[in-house]
Amino acid sequence: MKKKLHDGKQFAALPWRVAEDGRWEIMLLTSRETGRWVIPKGWPIKGRKPAEVARQEAYEEAGLIGRIIGKSAVGSYHYGKRLANLVVPCKVRVFLFQVERQLEDWPEKDQRETQWFDAHNAALLVEEDGLTEIIDRISTSSRTW
Fold first, then answer.
1. How do beta strands 114-118 and 24-30 pair?
2. Region class of 22: left (phi > 0), else alpha (psi between -120 and 50), else beta
3. 27, 114 in Cβ contact below 8 A?
4. H helices then E strands: how many in the chain?
5. What's the pLDDT at 2?
6. Spatial contact of 37 and 30, defined as CB atoms under 8 Å apart
7. Is 45 helix (H, G, I), strand (E, B) or coil?
8. How far does Cα 97 stand from its chain's mean position?
9. Domains in the chain and their CATH numbers?
10. What pTM did the predictor assign?
11. pLDDT, position 142
12. pLDDT averaged over the chain?
């Protein structure tokens, strides 16, 4: 079954936690195709709100259990999704996802690596400038989530 591209719209979870020393940590995972460091994201799912899709992707791609913080996306970024012989321009709306725990097993466990990084290093590791800006802005925010 072929996936509909939904005009290049995707929804993502930005998984975070506060370390014992008070620093923000961001979980990144590797993409299946290129091994780049990314955050969990995916296409819209019929009947689900964007934040619910983001939470579902966090579970499927990284085994994360937690909650979306707030009702709105904290930002968006653009990237080129590599599909077969083409690159589809995508706009990704990012939702803040507070991680409670990571399961021992999940659907894509054997297809990806996951790792916690301090927010500064996470921002340096992702390739998309817009995502770097979101991580930097969120991690230096004085707002209490």
1. antiparallel
2. left
3. yes
4. 3, 8
5. 46
6. yes
7. coil
8. 8
9. 10-139 (3.90.79.10)
10. 0.90
11. 52
12. 91
